[in-house]
Amino acid sequence: MHPFSFTKAANTRDALDAGQRGGRYIAGGTTLVDLMRETVERPDALVDITALPLREITVTKTGGLRLGALVSMSQAAAHPAVHPVISQALELSASAQLRNMATLGGNIMQRTRCTYFRDVTAACNKRSPGSGCAALGGYNRAHAILGGSEQCVATHPSDLAVACTALEVTVHLLGPTGSRTLPFTDFLLRPGTTPDREQALRPGELITAVEVPAYPRTLKSGYLKVRDRQSYEFALTSAAVALNVRGGVVREAKVAAGGVGTVPWKLSIVEHFLLGKQPSEQLWSDAAARAADGAQPLAHNGFKVELLKRTVERQLRGVGGAA
């Protein structure tokens, strides 16, 4: 581990000042500390933000739900107002000990589990821009089939982020020039030609909260994660589904996939196909058949195309049932 300075911010102003000077924000630290230990990340300064007042879960005036960035994963998962798709994504994310430490802000900021990214001897444009992407010609079973580029095909690891993508969550940010909000789908960036830039954060900006929009009480949701083993493993595929079925037809559909994209993948084509139709086994099958549209499998992960379709179909059936 390389030498670094450590300060504890007493308030938001202190944190922003330190962030402007290049300090890296840390709270639970469950990902960043690991990366520092492996010398993948080498920050010169860390800023402890655990004293900031960002731990509340509140219902907004419009009926949505605002979750502070320092709310722990376990606290959010246990809250009665949190949608099941979020609770289930959090509970399937890590061990109980990690969920007690890790924060929501840190969870959506976590970096890829690509083995080449974490191996400092391997070529990785995400870790060292311009060095190449070892995964393209290497063993790429766990890598992305959607959203990749010639620079990077690493998947985003967060289960919470898949649920946030499905529910069209808003990210609240605070920086030196004030506060702003971003749709979640704009917050996480596809690799393109700059795979080292993973979030749309400006220098010194801090995540203060994520906000789930208001949905009708009739909305049903859930999260399904398919992985090589049942405990402490990242997704090969996953599906976050939220459906509002009223009057015998699908009135609202929110669907996203994980484990298959360089960012959590919003399945808009599946959503649009479902709207206005009566729930049935055939509907779920026909909608899920579109889940992998545009996929570009690599040498070792072609199985993800069919696995994604089956995962989405299973979760649509589980959440929506049949007429």
UniProtKB/TrEMBL annotation:
Listed name of the protein: Carbon-monoxide dehydrogenase medium subunit
Domain FAD-binding PCMH-type: 1-217
Top-level taxon in the UniProt lineage: Bacteria
PROSITE patterns assigned: FAD_PCMH
GO MF, one example: oxidoreductase activity
Membrane-spanning residues: none
Keywords: Oxidoreductase
